[in-house]
Fold this sequence. Notes:
Blueprint: E1 2-8, E2 17-22, E3 25-32, E4 35-40, E5 54-56, E6 59-61, E7 68-70, E8 86-92, E9 95-100
Antiparallel strand pairs: 1-9, 2-3, 3-4, 4-8, 5-6, 6-7, 8-9
Amino acid sequence: MEKVLLGLAADIPLGTAREFVANGRVLAVFATNSGYMALDGLCAHAGGPLAKGKIQGGVVTCPWHGWQYELSTGRHCLSAGVSQACFTVVLEEDQLYVLMPATVD
Ligand code: FES
């Protein structure tokens, strides 16, 4: 795994999300009562920006057409076969990092 710096944790207030690009991949990073979580930021339906979705009860709702995903697993709430990639977020000092699969040159 590769640890990639995202930025200051303070830039994501509790209950909100922010979009980042890490290793060429768009991520939606969420600040929740359970900690920081990261999903693939582009919705599996048509690429909607999950970081701009409504967050409620551990679920994000895509702002484009309403698909919903569990923040802790990336699983679609209705379709078992659909899920967003899920990444571990680490808080060190006041900085957030995401653990990404190592890139292959
Ligand atoms: S793009 Fe997310 S629900 Fe359609």
